[in-house]
Amino acid sequence: MSELNSKQWFTEIFQPSGSAFSLKIHQKLTEVQSPFQHIEIYQTTDFGNLMVIDGCTMVSTRENFLYHEMMSHPALFTHPNPKNVVIIGGGDCGTLREVLKHRSVESVYQIDIDEQVTRLAEQYFPELCASNHDPRAFIMFDDGIKFMQETAAESVDVIIVDSTDPVGPGEGLFNRAFYQSCLQALKPGGILVQQSESPLIHMGLLNDMRQAMKDAGFAALQTLNFPQMIYPSGWWTCTMARKDMVFAGFRRDDVMDAEFETDYYNADIHQAALALPNFMRRQLVG
Amino acid sequence: MSELNSKQWFTEIFQPSGSAFSLKIHQKLTEVQSPFQHIEIYQTTDFGNLMVIDGCTMVSTRENFLYHEMMSHPALFTHPNPKNVVIIGGGDCGTLREVLKHRSVESVYQIDIDEQVTRLAEQYFPELCASNHDPRAFIMFDDGIKFMQETAAESVDVIIVDSTDPVGPGEGLFNRAFYQSCLQALKPGGILVQQSESPLIHMGLLNDMRQAMKDAGFAALQTLNFPQMIYPSGWWTCTMARKDMVFAGFRRDDVMDAEFETDYYNADIHQAALALPNFMRRQLVG
Fold this sequence. Notes:
2 copies of one chain form a homodimer. With 286 residues, chain A is an alpha/beta fold. Chain A has helices spanning 64-78, 94-99, 115-124, 144-150, 176-185, 203-216, 252-256, 267-273, 278-283; strands at residues 9-14, 19-33, 38-44, 49-53, 56-60, 84-89, 107-112, 137-141, 156-162, 186-195, 220-227, 235-242. In chain A, helix 4 (144-150) crosses helix 5 (176-185) and helix 5 crosses helix 6. The mean pLDDT of chain A is 96. The interface between A and B is large, with 50 and 50 residues. Strand 2 of chain A pairs antiparallel with strand 2 (19-33) of chain B, so a sheet runs across the interface.
């Protein structure tokens, strides 16, 4: 039986499912205690740099493309003409970079409560911050819950909630009150998309989110599946909720003609991510 | 930083990608040194029983359905009328159980070199062995390479290679000579399907397999993606190779009308598994 030396490995233990995931490291590059959370950066042997927040793996250089592409492109290619986008959380700026690839987008407000996440991303994940100086980008450090409450009604096309899990600072981003303020801020046909955990080990959380989105008044939901090696179970989802309208496909022709490169996302992958395994069909609510 | 006590956790270290995966355990239930490999069975806290071969996680009670369904149903629903099936490896009998759900199937020969795997599966994964006494099932303990060499030409509809990785006993199941004997044993239009590792961390192995299948003379290949929590990266594939014919869809109507239950597989999932991410489109050979 193997044991992992903590000088050579970073390990995230996920107690609720009795599982753990580890990456081999060369060294810890830095750690910061912000007013909100504990942030560590490691240099791994095979996955580039790794950001860890409150003990949970957040971003690695090698495989963050999966998450960032799936948090942005499905929602933006489902919306007919996304111009005004809000990102709640997203401090590593990887989602922002993907959103700004869309020419239709005129403004992106990114509101992460913790400035330290962005400062560390600039230093250790500079490729994710490559678009931070785009004139359409407005990077703010503030409370996302308050920001959504204060956003003008019917002013936003797409809201992306790119947060930590529903414990700690992220907790208030997973309930009906927050979703109601998102609903109000969205224009008709607008889309909220949020990371929604693993169907294999968090079905309760996923269903709680879906129920709260429905209770808040969203008209339709879609949960999309994708692989994410460094998150518990390696299988992750995001859930899209639409205001006033049902989902009716996505802009497949525009995906095919997209003038930017992606490493994971394409039209077939978008369609594929919507396929639900039988156990999800049986268990999903909303 | 967390450390995992080896009395409470089983850990598989995957050195080539500097990653590790662990499941929390109550106890080791048994271990056996067979003539071929070292087999351990653990009782985990959250995933039921776990079979480990030569240090690698093979099967857990909770999530083996993903692998076994994807190793069987896509190939059997792609073939127009699968009657005679061969499983090379597959000693835990989970793939056999799925294959026998298909009414068209008249015989399944399962050839695993290691009888101990099946004996332990009968004891610790009895649900996987539920169909072992089906009169259509022929369970043999022998060398799969030799078996395929000696199989009558054009006598098999589907060959499923459900083996360990290409080291140790499984090594000879991943090369051109083996694929040539499979090709000869298949009827025209017949399908070979084999587990083909993780696209995120084993692209070289996957491409070597695809190249060897092409070199052996198979007419067309399809690689399918699916999640598999306990295998390195949590993202796994199988690859189908067809004799004499290209792939032209699958029997979608028969999937919809299937008279058996699955937990993962359905027609949408079959189609979704065929979607290739951009990085795979760029890198896959064959």
